[in-house]
């Protein structure tokens, strides 16, 4: 991120980010958004930055029209014909509330699949994702009961019932301080 240079003739740049606007400030800090803002402020003190939810269907057209300059997203939403750079790699882990029957122990795949799940789908309200693809390859299937648009809502929903969610590992470190 530090190598990003802002063109001097642009006074306003727009960043679209897949999950950031709907998630908690702690997660934003963990993903490096706040350091990016600090870099931009130092490199381009007059910049204006708008962080918006990603609209996948209009992404290429918005870039072509110059309405947005940069997209931070996951690989499944990245456009193969656009220049891109890997910012970091992420591992995903299962999370449950503290009072969940599976809390505090290693979970066999059978137990993982036997509980209801909640999935973050920020743009489409989908009930399937990469975890489901991996489970299919293993001949398994999970029950996703809820699809929510943000990790902030996910965190609250997990506290209401014996649900399981699969989230970025770096997010769990930030959540542990609040749970």
Structural account:
With 179 residues, the chain is of the alpha/beta class. The protein is 30% helix and 18% strand. The chain contains seven helices and seven strands, in the order βααβαββαβαβαβα. The strands form three sheets. Strands 2-1-3 form a three-stranded parallel β-sheet, with no helix packed on it. Strands 4-7 form a two-stranded antiparallel sheet. Strands 5-6 form a two-stranded parallel sheet. The protein is globular and about 50 Å long. The N terminus is likely disordered.
Briefly, what is this?
This protein has 7 helices and 7 strands. With 179 residues, it is α/β, with parallel strands linked by helices.
Overall average residue pLDDT: 76
Low-confidence stretches: 1-30
Number of strands: 7
At the third CATH level, what is the topology name of the largest domain?
A: D-Maltodextrin-Binding Protein, domain 2
Number of DSSP helical runs: 7
**Largest beta sheet, briefly?**
3 strands, parallel
Domains (count): 2
**CATH architect. name of the largest domain:** 3-Layer(aba) Sandwich
Strand content: 15-25%
Structural class: alpha/beta
Please report the distance between the alpha carbons of the first and last residues: 30 Å
Describe the global form.
globular
Q: H/E order of the elements?
A: EHHEHEEHEHEHEH
- Order of strands, main sheet, comes to 2-1-3
CATH class membership of the largest domain: Alpha Beta
């Amino acid at each position: 991120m530090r190598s990003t240079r802002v063109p001097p003739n642009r006074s306003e740049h727009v960043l679209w980010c897949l999950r950031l606007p709907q998630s908690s400030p702690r997660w934003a800090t963990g993903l490096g958004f706040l350091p990016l803002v600090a870099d931009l402020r130092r490199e381009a003190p007059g910049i204006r930055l708008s962080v918006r939810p990603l609209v996948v269907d209009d992404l290429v057209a918005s870039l072509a029209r110059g309405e947005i300059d940069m997209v931070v997203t996951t690989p499944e939403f990245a456009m193969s014909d656009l220049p891109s750079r890997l910012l970091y790699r992420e591992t995903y882990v299962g999370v449950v509330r503290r009072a969940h029957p599976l809390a505090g122990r290693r979970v066999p795949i059978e137990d993982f699949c036997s509980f209801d799940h909640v999935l973050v789908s920020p743009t489409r309200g989908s009930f399937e994702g990469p975890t489901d693809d991996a489970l299919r390859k293993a001949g398994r299937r999970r029950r996703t009961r809820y699809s929510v648009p943000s990790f902030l809502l996910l965190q609250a929903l997990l506290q209401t019932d014996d649900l399981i969610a699969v989230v970025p590992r770096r997010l769990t470190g930030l959540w542990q301080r609040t749970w």
